[in-house]
Amino acid sequence: MTIRLKLTLWYSAVVSLTLIAFSLILYTFLSYSMVQEIDRELAGRAVAVVRSVKVVGPNWFSRQQIVLPDVDVFGYPNTYLQVVDSYGRLVAKSSNLSQQVLPLSEDTLQLAAGGQSFYEWLQVDGQRIRTYNYPLMAEQRVVGLLQVGQPFSGIQAALNRLKWLLWLLSGLMIGAAGSLGWWLARTALRPVEEITKTADLIRQELNLQQRINWEGPADELGRLAATLNGMLDSLATAYRELEASHAAQRRFVADVSHELKTPLTTIRGNVDLLRKMGDDQPAVRQEALADIASEAERMSRLVSDMLVLARADAGFTLSLKPLPVQQIIEQVGRQAKILAGSLNFKISCRPSCENIRILADPDYVKQMLLILLDNAIKFTPPTGVVELSAECSGDVVKVAVKDTGIGIGPDELDRIFERFYRADQSRSVGGTGLGLSIAKWIAHQHKAEITVTSELHKGSVFWVTFPVFSRPDQSFP
């Protein structure tokens, strides 16, 4: 069942119940009002008759008698008058009763004996008669009963016509309400149909750039259109990100294949060389084994770096704890000195960093700084300088890795953090091309920002900016 049909049925049902309730109330009210009007007329006529009635008391020669004027004098069209004594014997009646009499039951006589007037319904020759019973009193004793009646057939016929008229009008109005409800439901749901058609078109054509064109007011349908457009925006963004992720994944697989192909080819070539002439030429054998070891070590580094990036892609989070800045710089500096060898390597930690702590993973923060230092050392000539420094100001800690190496070109600065990207100058040095990608991910995990400034043939500076976790003037748990 469609919503349009449901709305039409509900609307028709509400209108129908309203009309039926109105008709019943109107019919009941008019019936009650007409009966009340008849009762007032009967009571008024009974009072007029009673004023002319005389009761003659008993004496030695006769019983107590009711002396009546000519009841036809008080006659009205469609009004019956009848008087009986206390025993129910007919005393007088109006001429329009002809040969008929108003029925009189024992219950009526008993009620009249109580001296209270009352109304009742009588049935005479198949027609209902509304009757007013008025006891006649003499010396505080009921001596007779006056009955004033009026046929209800005329009023009943009018009420029947009213009933059929109400049924007819109700039926017509219900039909009109159903048609109106159908039209209103169709008009109200037309924007929903347009939205549905647009959404279905988007589904069929897979066009996430298309939007629902809503020019109406900002009502419920307007909010629905806006919500759907927002959902389409989110889907389009997610789809673009998914495409970018797939492209990056394909590029990653291609780059890994390329990076692994070279060392594997080198290893296979050296193995073939050893098979042919390794035993006869010890120098060639040693050189081949050295190449195999070098390429195996390179593959090991590549696999290790790929494992780190795979964890990053899987949503791996680091376990951070408060660490003193000076301690980190000193430990990383000691390891970097070994890497630097005879290169001029400097370490400095400003006094402002004393007792300053940052939230960090000790292993990964060292790995990040060593990646930056390893690059600086590899691309700095023997006469150059590499420096690791830290300074603290405000709510940040800035760690800098400076070198006087070959530098990075302006057109390459935006790409050095991409996976497997290596500048032209670095291709001769070697490496996996994943180090800076790993460093950037580690910095992100520490809520740190990594930036770089560089000038060709003059050197580079990598800045890692950490948020301060605690200062000397702050209590530390």
TrEMBL record:
The HAMP domain, residue ranges: 186-240
Location in or out of the cell: Membrane
Enzymatic reactions: ATP + protein L-histidine = ADP + protein N-phospho-L-histidine
Residues in Histidine kinase domain copies: 255-470
Transmembrane spans: 12-30, 164-185
Pfam families to which the protein is assigned, alphabetical: HAMP, HATPase_c, HisKA
Record carries keyword Transmembrane helix: yes
GO terms under cellular component: plasma membrane
Top-level division of the source organism's lineage: Bacteria
Key words of the record: Kinase, Membrane, Phosphoprotein, Transferase, Transmembrane, Transmembrane helix, Two-component regulatory system
EC numbers: 2.7.13.3
Top class in the EC scheme: transferase
Hydrolase is among the record's keywords: no
Main location: membrane
A single GO molecular function term of this UniProt record: phosphorelay sensor kinase activity
Identification of the protein by name: histidine kinase
